[in-house]
């Protein structure tokens, strides 16, 4: 199985340096990863580094807590796309979904959808480790209703990351209408394949090079 085309090669740590970003972009080009996933401040640099390649740019928004004002979240997404992001990974308002405030959650996602205006794909990070089965299902349904393109398991900064069970659940809810991205804790080729077989069609990982070469990684988070 060619795993490379599934991978959003990810570097989101607060202490990531310019040299780290350069390395990740070079690795993405060399290994033909689908995209590089970075915090929005790095988009202009990444755009230059990836120029002439087919590697896309993914930027996170409202990351990692999802608790910012919806207008600010939408603006962050808009600017990220204007700067060159091809895809946006936004964090759902986790507190609102826990409180059952589904109307707000729907509007929160919809504001980002409207802000990017079809100029980029939108993935909604639902942070599965913090949600019940019912909440996970509702988060997927609201993402579909709002017009998102993907649902995504995790930020990689919470209590746990992706599980095969969560991928199966999310795929059962969205069917073939949305993509499903597994992220957080994927550090071996074996686990990556399990996620894909469970229904993931994108993987958010930092141990990407080790995974495609069949080596294990001890890295934390993504």
Task: Describe what you observe in this structure.
Strands 1-2-3-4-5-6-7-8 form an 8-stranded parallel beta barrel, surrounded by 7 helices. β2, α2 (43-49) and β3 (56-61) form a beta-alpha-beta unit. The chain has a single domain (4-212), classed as Alpha-Beta Barrel (TIM Barrel), CATH 3.20.20. It starts with 6 loop residues before the first strand and ends in a 10-residue tail after the last helix. The chain is built from 9 helices and 8 strands. The model has no long low-confidence stretch (mean pLDDT 96). It is of the alpha/beta class and 222 residues long. α3 packs parallel to α5 and α6 (133-146) crosses α7. The chain has helices at residues 18-31, 43-49, 70-82, 94-98, 102-116, 133-146, 164-174, 189-198, 208-212, and strands spanning 7-11, 35-38, 56-61, 87-91, 121-125, 150-152, 179-183, 202-205. The relative contact order is 0.15.
CA gyration radius, whole angstroms: 16 Å
Major beta sheet, specifics? 8 strands, parallel, barrel
Structural class: alpha/beta
What helical percentage do the residues reach?
40-55%
Detail the topology: elements first, then pairings:
Blueprint: E1 7-11, H1 18-31, E2 35-38, H2 43-49, E3 56-61, H3 70-82, E4 87-91, H4 94-98, H5 102-116, E5 121-125, H6 133-146, E6 150-152, H7 164-174, E7 179-183, H8 189-198, E8 202-205, H9 208-212
Parallel strand pairs: 1-2, 1-8, 2-3, 3-4, 4-5, 5-6, 6-7, 7-8
């Amino acid at each position: 199985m060619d795993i490379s085309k599934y991978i959003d090669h990810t570097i989101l740590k607060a202490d990531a340096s310019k040299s780290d970003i350069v390395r990740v972009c070079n690795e993405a080009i060399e290994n033909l990863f689908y995209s590089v996933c970075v915090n929005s401040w790095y988009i202009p640099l990444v755009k230059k580094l990836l120029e002439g390649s087919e590697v896309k740019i993914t930027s996170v928004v409202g990351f990692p807590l999802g608790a910012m004002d919806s207008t600010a979240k939408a603006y962050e997404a808009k600017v990220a796309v204007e700067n060159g992001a091809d895809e946006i990974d936004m964090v759902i308002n986790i507190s609102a979904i826990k409180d059952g405030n589904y109307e707000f959650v729907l509007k929160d996602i919809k504001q980002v959808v409207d802000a990017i205006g079809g100029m980029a794909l939108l993935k909604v990070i639902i942070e599965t480790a913090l949600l019940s089965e019912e909440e996970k299902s509702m988060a997927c349904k609201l993402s579909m209703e709002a017009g998102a393109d993907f649902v995504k398991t995790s930020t990689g900064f919470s209590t746990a990351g992706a599980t095969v069970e969560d991928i199966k659940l999310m795929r059962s809810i969205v069917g073939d209408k949305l993509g499903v991205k597994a992220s957080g804790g994927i550090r071996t080729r074996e686990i990556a394949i399990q996620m894909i077989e469970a229904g993931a069609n994108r993987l958010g990982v930092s141990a990407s090079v080790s995974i495609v070469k069949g080596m294990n990684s001890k890295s934390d988070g993504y």
